[in-house]
Amino acid sequence: MWKWSPHGNATQTNFKLQAEYLWRKEDGNFTADVNGILGPAVSDAYRATQSGWYVQTVYQFMPQWRAGLRYDQLRPGDIQAGANAALFDTGGHTPRRASVMLDWSRSEFSRVRLQLSSDHSQPDTDSQVFVQYIMSLGAHGAHAF
């Protein structure tokens, strides 16, 4: 994460850039038993690797307003399932999503957020619109109720 604030006053304007890379490796045995539909249960070695990443940025351009962008992508990786290989989708599809958001904070306890996303995790693109109202209630570290 990298943060920047002009003149050192993050309450007026600030910029945040965040990115992360994730990697997973699985190694073991897999037994496929779909209630006898595919025949007798088959057990065989299973190995898989998968990785993904995201990068996002949020810019507070006025004291109560922020805008942001995010892009994330998953690489399904390599699956080796021996006799069970036909049960896994190895079509090489690489899911990805791009989002843009705008939010307004009335106070530190409430926020209204609009987000538009283009999701390519399925064969067809899914365009999404989210409107959120986020609020905080109750005791917290800054106040003793």
Individual helix count: 0
Secondary structure category: mainly beta
Major pleated sheet: 7 strands, antiparallel
Q: What's the end-to-end separation, in Å?
A: 34 Å
Q: What is the percentage of strand-forming residues?
A: over 45%
Mean pLDDT: 86
Poorly predicted runs? none
User: What percent of residues adopt helix (DSSP H or I)?
Assistant: under 10%
- Output the strand order for the largest sheet: 1-2-3-4-5-6-7
The helix/strand order is EEEEEEE
Question: What Rg, in angstroms, do the CA atoms define?
Answer: 22 Å
> Globular, elongated, flat, extended or rod-shaped: what is the shape?
elongated
Q: How many strands appear in the DSSP assignment?
A: 7
List descriptors.
mainly beta, seven-stranded antiparallel β-sheet, 7 strands, 63% strand, elongated
Structure, described:
This protein has 145 residues and is an all-beta fold. It has no helices and seven strands. The chain has strands at residues 2-4, 14-32, 42-62, 65-80, 96-107, 110-119, 126-135. The protein has a seven-stranded antiparallel beta sheet, with no helix packed on it. The model has no long low-confidence stretch (mean pLDDT 86).
Helix and strand layout, with pairings?
Layout: E1 2-4, E2 14-32, E3 42-62, E4 65-80, E5 96-107, E6 110-119, E7 126-135
Antiparallel strand pairs: 1-2, 2-3, 3-4, 4-5, 5-6, 6-7
Question: What is the structure about, briefly put?
Answer:
The protein has 145 residues and is an all-beta fold. It has no helices and 7 strands.
